[in-house]
Here is the input.
Amino acid sequence: MASSSKDDLHSAIGLAELPKSGNEYASHGEFSRDMDKGIDTSVNVYGVEEGRHVNVKEEDLEPVVVVQGAEEIVTEIIDPRDDPDQPVLTLRFWFLGTGLACFGAVLAEIYYWKPQGATVSALFQLIIAYIMGKILERLPSHGKWRHVNPGPFNIKEHAAIVIYASTASIIAEAVSVVAILNLYYGLDLNPGIAIIQTWAAQCIGYAICGVLQSSLIYPTYALWPATIPTISLLQSMHFGGLLNKKKMKFFWIVFTAIFFWEIIPSWMFPLLTAVSIVCLVDNGRHTFVRNLFGAGSSNEGLGFFSFGFDWILITQAYPLYWPLQTQVSAWIGMLLCYIIATGAYYSDVGQGKSNGLPFMSTSLFTSNGTKYDQTKILDSNYGLNHTAYQEYGRPYYTSTYQMSLTTHNLSCGAAVTHVILWHYKDIIAGWAGIRRGNKDLDIDDVHYQKMKAYKVVPQWVYGCLFLVSMAIAMGTAYFGGRTTIPAWSILLFSFIGYFFAIILGFLKAVTGFDTSINGIIQIIAAFIHPGKPLANLYASLYGYYAPLQTLYMLSDQKLGQYAKVPPRVTFVAQLAGTFVGATLNYVLYKSIVSQNREALLDPLGTREWSGWQVQGTNSKAVTFGALGQEMYLAGKPYWFIPAALGIGVVLPIPFWLMHRKFPNQRVWSYLNIPIITNYAGWLAYSVNGMWWPGAIIGFASQYWARKYRPRWFIKYNYLLSAALDGGTQVIYFILNFAIFGAASASVTFPYWWGNPDPSLLGADRCMAPG
Here is the structure.
């Protein structure tokens, strides 16, 4: 496959060319890797004048490399070694993988209904798997016991368990659709139909992976930044030697510290989730202060200069592993969001302020600020009743959510153009790989070259998976004599989703970022199925959420390549995780909704439970699906939201042209328009106390440490991310079941200055949301 030049690759990956560090190590010396010890040793002493005799620690003999782009990451941070004889699909794999898959699926469903929008980290499962795997390897390994314990717990077995468990821990959006039917339409889908429909929606997305591997897994530029902490920790655990012992000691110290720390901001001292000096001074007196500076409670405010000390929130900014360009573009977008959201509300865009709507919410409201009852405008078949609509009136979005939808559509349009302009050569080369069945490709990547020793999953397997999944999806679209979406429409939107999987895949693989293309899917569905919110909802499922599963699967397959897990083993692990995860997602959704229904339907939610994600999805399904022609056509109230798609398409073009004209001026390639526009509407919901500390940590990691402390960066940066994520995930799981009401009644910590009564003040002592 043809590859980009190094400068173009640095521009695409989001790492600016960095000057060499002030020492001499950065550009001199040769090194060899001690494969047995797993440490780097140098053949000469760096930075020491000739003739001097000094005592140098073994790890200080490593050459210092300033990590600038994907090439340095995959060679300096990720070890390419492989042992083809290591067993993978062992009984130990199935036992630990299934247990952790169940564990992760339950936790993911809990997180989905939380105001923080947290997700399950693969690092959490990796840590538990390692502990359990090392325990099981102590069992006897002779005679019949060899089937239970085939030998030392190895990195491939470990990585396959993580892939199995993390696949199950990705929330199945089809279950969210089932939840919307239950919460907003009073439809309770048959459990069997709901579960197999969920399997089908995810597997349609997986089937697309087969044709994207040569573009989005094998090449070096397809870095998938989110996998770097995982593979860094895996290799530290399994590749021995003095250096890795020190790295694991570092890991466990950080893990333990964050484990105990998280109890404080999560439960005892919630003010620490969003410390705002302005809010503390104001003490809940002014709505403007809450709207701009508040960030401690669900849908409270934008969090301007709010500093959180809760890693479960901060990690959502991905500060330790997102490339610098991705983070800088996100920071620029959020600075714009403060201006856009505040300006939109106080200038009364869409009558959000004059109608008495909340400052922030993803729900629908009436003209007097009460919650919009969508059942009053729908007929018995859940289509639009025009007469009832005229009598009841149209729904309203909050001003901030209007801006959020607009900027997300700008991002969606910009993403299409950005990928075509910056990656058209890679896309063409990827198609050439498809014609060869992803075999014997000319790709100069050290990890791909190692993986050529293993058989790939044949293309016909992906094809069969697509056909079977499509048949199930079409069949489950008809239940109880009711049609949610025609069968032909499922096929149509699946193909549309495939196109966008390519677009989002390149963005995610190169920058670590992906944007929502749900807006364009819903606009298309609004014209194909006018007046039908359920059809619009299902169009989103197969046109957006299914290809989103493609990205998750590709990311895990990239982890498999880094860990040298045979492709067929990765495929088996992912399918197993899908079936386990979808089933448990459904079971837990029933429990959570039954126990917390009122909180989930509340437009603002509570500190512990919130339905903001399903509220947003349902709101768009109603407005686009039932009321698309009444609300989004030219001259209608929200015409500017779909119009943003067309504007977004042209936004990256001037930057690309300037980059072509002035290739040495890196600013034109450094600004990523899809990311900037996406984050320009990012703060209009949920909680927002994490972004300022995230920016500081991101700058310290991806600029200062990478440039001025390259040795520390290579050894510890991604390990630090793994330790922080792992420790918070473990304690957060315990807290949710023991204290936050996931299994029984919640236990509220006594109210005090650092834990104010939510009916009086927000967690940061700003005025309570309302």
Observations:
- The CA atoms of residues 592 and 742 lie 7 Å apart.
- The longest strand covers residues 31-34.
